[in-house]
Amino acid sequence: MTDTPADLVIHGGIIVAADTMFPASIALRDGRIAAVGEAQAMPAARESFDAAGLHILPGAIDVHVHFRDPGYTHKEDFESGTAAAAFGGVTTVFDMPNTIPTVADAAALRGKHAIAAAKAHVDYGLYAVLGEDTIDKVPELVEAGIIGFKLYMGNTFGRIATPSTGAMLEAFEVVAPTGKRVSLHAETNSVMERRQAKLVAAGRTDALAHLASRPAVVAVEAVARAAILAEWTGARIHILHISSAAELAPLRDAKARGVDITGETGPHYLMLGAEDYARWGGIIRVNPPVREAANQGPLWDALLDGTIDMIATDHAPHAPEEKTHADIWSVDCGFPGVETQMPLMLTEVANGRYSLSDYVRWSAVAPAKVWGLYPRKGVIQPGADADLAFVDMARAWTLRDAELHSRSRISPWDGRAVQGMPVHTMVRGRFVVKDRALQPGTRGHGRPVHDIQQMPAPAPRNTDQTIAAATATVVPGAAA
Ligand code: DOR
Ligand code: ZN
């Protein structure tokens, strides 16, 4: 124990770890956790904070949000999005690149970095796109600071063109030696486009036509194909928004073969089903679609057995008028989720489906490990950033769109009864939300996490057969 006083000691809470929970005090110094233990073992501190009756969780890391900034700030911006995150107990977000301009080169990335640095209330990572014609930008993007790459195997909001399988293989060849992970929107575009065209031609405009255009086979085929290319190249991949029982088979197979593949699902795939289209109409339209309720059980099982590694939200805010057209094909896809994930998932803890430790593994530990941020983030122990979600598990309440802090106050969670409330949220030792109020002066407190990312050593494969290797060995004088 040093003689330097701590900045703050938190007493009386129950700390939740990946495999256990225990009552303890936490001492903080310079934004990091300095000590965890019995109250009398804490160093002297300038201030103390009473967390009696609360569980203290490592802040959630939501690896999949769309904060729309720049380009669509009427839907959300970095300030409103990160405020919503803080109200949801989320202390780090990874922002998606389908903004305007698309984050596909260093200039666009630098622009987003400046925006995020000025506005963020919580810490953040930024994704960059891997596209058909932008593979040569990989080095400059890695240099300028990204958490990882995003590759759209299927069309969604922003209509970023889908790379061919050939471009995907080359992209994986180029990214593999960087060690960065490629996150995949794993829905096969040609299948969906063809089906949607036929549904439109047949006159289907109802909400369920959206589900009919994207049956689970589009994800099954995409996950299997992506895993084959990852296995060949040694690229690390992550399957975004797993929505169906059927795609768990290629995911499990790939894990069994030793492919470095991880996956996420979100509350809407676990808790909503095809019967909800009748109630919500276009509000529920999202890619991949909310599917038949029979998928929910296998998705829960896959989380519990580790096939699915983590929970993320695909927070996809749109304005109300963009979500409420009668013709489903003109409704923007997605809805906000960064703020409601934690109470929705805690409700299932209260219902006895799993433990708080399970939840912490899915919401904090796994994302931190998969993106090389552990143990600086994702855990409450000395040396870690003091990123904390203080949760009142006794608090039963109702989610209301009108009370969301996102600019997009329209979601299929409106009116839902939940149990468990994030009451205070701390980012690197500073309360961003305290007693459900955003604290003054926290705009701009958020920092990029890129500098603390430490991915394991890259493990590229078949490097003698890459396009780069093949085109480097032109034999002088050989016949054409
Ligand atoms: O529904 C969706 N909306 N799915 C995505 O993959 C993208 C997102 C968006 O950006 O709106
Ligand atoms: Zn998304």
Structure overview:
- The chain has 480 residues and is α/β, with parallel strands linked by helices.
- Helices cover 29% and strands 21% of the residues.
- An eight-stranded parallel β-sheet has the order 8-9-10-11-12-13-14-15.
- The protein binds (4S)-2,6-dioxohexahydropyrimidine-4-carboxylic acid and zinc ion (ZN).
- The site of zinc ion (ZN) has 5 residues, from loops.
The gist of it:
This protein has 480 residues and is an alpha/beta fold.
Would you spell out the secondary-structure blueprint of this structure?
Layout lengths: L5 E6 L2 E3 L4 E3 L1 E5 L2 E6 L7 E6 L4 E4 L1 E6 L12 H10 L2 E6 L10 H14 L3 E7 L8 H7 L3 E5 L12 H11 L5 E5 L3 H13 L6 H6 L3 H17 L2 E4 L8 H9 L4 E5 L1 H5 L4 H5 L15 H10 L4 E2 L8 H4 L17 H10 L5 H15 L17 E11 L18 E11 L2 E5 L2 E2 L28 H5 L9
Parallel strand pairs: 1-6, 2-7, 8-9, 9-10, 10-11, 11-12, 12-13, 13-14, 14-15
Antiparallel strand pairs: 1-4, 2-3, 4-5, 7-16, 16-17, 17-18, 18-19
Helix pairs in contact: 4-7, 7-8
The site of (4S)-2,6-dioxohexahydropyrimidine-4-carboxylic acid (DOR) has 12 residues, from loops.
**Distance N terminus to C terminus?**
73 Å
CATH class of the largest domain: Alpha Beta
CATH architecture of the largest domain: Alpha-Beta Barrel
Backbone structural class:
alpha/beta
- Uncertain segments are none
**How many distinct helices?**
15
Give the biggest beta sheet: 8 strands, parallel
Using the alpha-carbon principal axes, give the shape: globular
Hetero ligands: (4S)-2,6-dioxohexahydropyrimidine-4-carboxylic acid, zinc ion
Q: Could you give the count of β-strands?
A: 19
- How big a fraction of the residues is strand? 15-25%
Quaternary structure of the protein: single chain
**CATH homologous superfamily title of the largest domain:** Metal-dependent hydrolases
In total, the number of domains comes to: 2
